[in-house]
UniProtKB/TrEMBL annotation:
Keywords: ATP-binding, Kinase, Nucleotide biosynthesis, Nucleotide-binding, Transferase. This is Thymidylate kinase. Pfam families: Thymidylate_kin. HAMAP family: Thymidylate_kinase (MF_00165). It comes from Candidatus Curtissbacteria bacterium RIFCSPLOWO2_01_FULL_42_50. GO terms for cellular component: cytoplasm. Phosphorylation of dTMP to form dTDP in both de novo and salvage pathways of dTTP synthesis. Its EC number is 2.7.4.9. It comes from the Bacteria. ATP binds at residues 12-19. GO terms for biological process: dTDP biosynthetic process; dTTP biosynthetic process; dUDP biosynthetic process. One of its GO terms (molecular function) is dTMP kinase activity. Residues 10-193 form the Thymidylate kinase-like domain. The gene is tmk. InterPro entries: P-loop_NTPase, Thymidylate_kin-like_dom, Thymidylate_kinase.
Length: 222
């Protein structure tokens, strides 16, 4: 089966299961011989920019409150810029590109740093211009937002060594709020990953995602 090139992005706060669900979808596509590729941002150990991001997340440049969100955004944008030729190649070849985190990760995580809505919107406009226009990154065909309350995701990350984002519950709650605002866009869909205060199983969430694909004819052949 051959489909037109599409960019499918998984977004969500830290600990929401993005990597798991992105790889489950990739496995589903490959099993059905649907041309597909996988990419995850930041591309740790693959670019100069990602190395800088590691240092930032470890707190080498200061505490979260001390780092200008515009400055931090440039590292993430630079990492995606390096991957642009590869992504363009895949999409031009008709591949379905499954992406774990993308532009919206910056929009949500750095947007959450602004208390005033007008300042947040100014930042969002700036970042979209930088990434989509100046760098020329492809627009997402579909963004799948895995909605998990911050307190639940924190519980899921109990055994993880947390970075300067993951260790701040109040900040992560703001991140989820920004994601929910972004989810009003037409190319976004929100997947509720909990029921009565408990996380759904990986397979239950995966089935919800496949239902979105069916309802939107994402895998419609050329």
């Amino acid at each position: 089966m051959k489909v037109s090139g599409k960019l499918i992005v998984f977004e969500g706060a830290d600990g929401s299961g993005k990597t798991t669900q992105a790889k489950l979808l990739l496995k589903y596509l490959q099993k059905r011989k649907i041309p597909s590729e996988y990419i995850s941002f930041p591309r740790y150990n693959e670019s100069f920019w990602a190395h800088m991001i590691i240092r930032y997340l470890k707190g080498e440049f200061g505490k979260l409150s001390e780092i200008n969100p515009y400055f931090a955004s440039l590292m993430y944008a630079g990492d995606r810029m390096r991957a642009l030729p590869l992504m363009k190649k895949w999409l031009a070849a008709g591949q379905l590109v499954v992406c774990n985190r993308y532009v919206a990760s910056n929009l949500a995580h750095m947007g959450a740093r602004f208390d005033r809505e007008d300042e947040r919107q100014k930042y969002i406009r700036w970042l979209k211009k930088l990434e989509y226009q100046e760098i020329g990154l492809p627009q997402e065909d579909l963004v799948i937002f895995l909605d998990v309350p911050a307190k639940i995701s924190q519980n899921l990350m109990k055994k993880r060594v947390k970075d300067i984002h993951e260790g701040n519950v109040d900040y992560l709650e703001k991140v989820v709020d920004v994601y929910r605002q972004l989810c009003r866009q037409k190319n976004w869909v929100k997947i509720d990953c909990t029921w009565r205060g408990k996380i759904l199983t990986e397979q239950q969430i995966h089935e919800k995602i496949l239902e979105v694909f069916r309802s939107r004819n994402i895998l419609r052949a050329k």
